[in-house]
Automatic annotation (TrEMBL):
The keyword Transmembrane applies. Keywords: Membrane, Signal, Transmembrane, Transmembrane helix. Residues 1-20 form the signal peptide. The chain crosses the membrane at residues 139-160, 172-193, 213-232. This is Actin cortical patch SUR7/pH-response regulator PalI. The keyword rRNA-binding does not apply.
Length: 253
């Protein structure tokens, strides 16, 4: 009994941790960070979140401009960099010239891959929006998982001995399922962002995956660890009979 209760408590602690990490990564504008090289006439630093983008430039020192991201009008119409306001051709030209100087053939290959991919009707807006929706869904699943663990522990503590065994034996399925779905959603969101960082020309030079992306990867890795542990516990028979309950059976009604 103590071993299984410890496992459920560990799952509860991990669920709280992953929900906190996912919430923080949703709110942070720190998924990708880009910076123009030193040879560029204007230094641009851009940070991307799931739903917003913020920019700083040497053209306007000390001024940070943020807006919703992605915008179909600004970001998904073939623009190299819709980071300021409409008509900011100066910023776009600076970025593309800097990326071309620094990226060379690799930057050109990214542009070609992006154009081919966009021809299929699926581009940055679709990928980024999918990542955002998947991440929001992971928050709902994480909260549902915490509730499921709490209800399982309450039922275990308040019910009779035989029912307590059944509660621990059956509860792992719901907990493992919700944690796996949560991990799947965060894996989808982080994968889409990483794919865009590797293929979109606006990230051709000076781009790095940020803190929010790292937190997401850590979150789904922790979830998968608990899921695998629960599955191994089930396969090895630890959930078939709780230690200390041998010889007891629920009284049939």
């Amino acid at each position: 009994m103590k071993g299984l209760l410890a496992l459920y408590l560990a799952a509860f602690a991990v669920s709280l941790t992953t929900l906190s990490l996912n919430t923080a990564s949703t709110l942070q504008i720190a998924w990708i960070r880009t910076k123009t090289p030193a040879i560029a006439p204007i230094q641009l630093t851009t940070t991307y979140g799931l739903f917003s983008i913020c920019e700083e430039s040497s053209y306007e020192p000390g001024v940070t401009t943020c807006r919703p991201f992605p915008s179909r009008a600004l970001d998904c119409k073939g623009q190299a960099r819709g980071a300021k306001v409409e008509g900011s051709e100066e910023y776009k030209d600076v970025w593309m010239s800097a990326a071309g100087l620094a990226g060379g053939k690799g930057a050109a290959q990214r542009v070609t891959r992006r154009k081919r991919f966009a021809e299929s009707g699926w581009g940055l807006c679709e990928n980024w929006s999918t990542a955002g929706y998947a991440h929001q869904l992971s928050l709902i699943l994480g909260l549902a998982n915490i509730i499921a663990i709490v209800l399982t522990l309450i039922g275990t503590a308040s019910a009779g001995r035989g029912y307590r065994t059944d509660k621990l034996r059956s509860g792992w399925k719901l907990v493992a399922g919700l944690m796996f779905l949560q991990a799947l959603c965060t894996c989808i969101s982080s994968s889409f962002i990483a794919w865009e960082r590797h293929h979109d020309e606006r990230f051709a030079h000076g781009s790095k995956l940020g803190r929010a992306w790292v937190e997401t990867v850590v979150a789904y890795a922790l979830n998968l660890f608990i899921v695998i542990t629960l599955l191994l516990t089930r396969v090895t028979g630890k959930l078939r009979m709780v230690p200390g309950d041998e010889g007891y059976e629920p009284i049939s009604s």
